[in-house]
Prior knowledge:
The chain is an alpha/beta fold. About 30% of the residues lie in helices and about 20% in strands. The chain has 13 helices and 22 strands.
Amino acid sequence: MEKKPFERPLIKRLNAGMPGKFGIHSHIEPLREIDGVLVKDLIAEHGSPLYVLSESALRRTFREAYQTFSTRYPRVQFAWSYKTNYLNAVCNVFHQEGAWAEVVSGFEYEKALQNGVPGSQIIFNGPDKQEKDLRLAIKNGSLIHIDHFDELYMLLELAGQGTGTPKVAIRVNMDTGIYPRWDRFGFNYENGEAWEALNRILLSEKLELVGLHTHIGTYILTADAYRAAAAKLASLATGIEKKYGKVIQYIDLGGGFASKNTLKGAYVPGTDAAPSFEEYADAISSALIKSEIKPDNLPLLILETGRAMVDDAGYLLGTVLANKRLADGRRATIADIGVNLLFTSFWYQHEVLPAQDVSQHTEETTLYGPLCMNIDVIREAIDFPLLKKGDHLVIKRIGAYNMTQWLQFINYRPRVVMIDEAGKPHVIREREDLVHLIRLEKVPEHLQSPKQKKQ
Ligand SMILES: *Cc1c(COP(=O)(O)O)cnc(C)c1O
């Protein structure tokens, strides 16, 4: 009789049908298509891994946010946070919807200009504005949000050089009950620094103070933090009016609304934990309307919502490369999606779904990426069905930050596709190739041949 290969016996927990913290585990429903296009067709046409963005989802979320705020406050303007996703197709969807641009570097500023955004509709944030960037921003009449006194002094210097009067706001940091506090950006409210910066600007008469800005943090799970922030900026605005008779044009509350992703270690899923646009809008509008600002002087409300605007519209598709058992018996599934393509896997417990029918028998599985690096883990422990080599999977809610913080590492970065409102996929960024990657490299003459140097 032929001897069968020995397989070590394993005792493992059965998860199917077992109640968890929130009751009976829900049925795993595969995600077979995005906006009517089959995942397997997208991968067959564009390769794996693949980023997919839904234009309908982008527009739907933008309209929902705009509608929610503009029904609660008279004048609202969104500005698209470039660093959250600066692929031109994405930016232009938001610009078509009426968003201005919010940029934090000379590079992003150039990108916004190239997308055709008028200079007067570019908000220039961040601690790193070079002199040449500021000159250009002044010339274009952009809204410069001053981060520190050194920037203020540089602007005062440039203002005297005939390039036009800089339009400025200051970024204010403050205690909103969110800790750790983001006090490294802008001028502090509580210690009087913000008020001092405003006095210097108004006394100099060389800069035009147009607004007040804050960005209190990111993934803020309580709308009350925005209530506090709006109230503090409103009190600065009334202080300015009282002392200088100057009415500011806008209050900019930055970004930071939570998306529906679940943070690692969170007890409740993000879909339940994240406040809705209504909750944020209620808090902000009520603080502004109840403030001492006179009704005729109510400023334009600017919002720089990033992740909550774009996360849901993005998907990362991939393919299973292999399954194996770890030394302790745990199941490991290896897919072609590395952490270099999913930067947010370091803090989110991303929702991963199979793209085809699967057995409902799940097992705790570690989901690895393809990189030859121990840290390449997409999910440490996910209750997952067995996917075979070649099966596809989909990671949900990856539209924010992954297409800007991605790293070219070990592999080429894949294509990005946007599915339009009629269900037609368009390539919006090509897969990288060797020509693209080595274009910036230079090899000194003596290293141009791989042959060993003669002794
Ligand atoms: C990053 C950033 C945003 C967007 O933040 P989200 O948390 O993604 O909404 C908005 N404004 C400024 C100044 C930023 O730095």
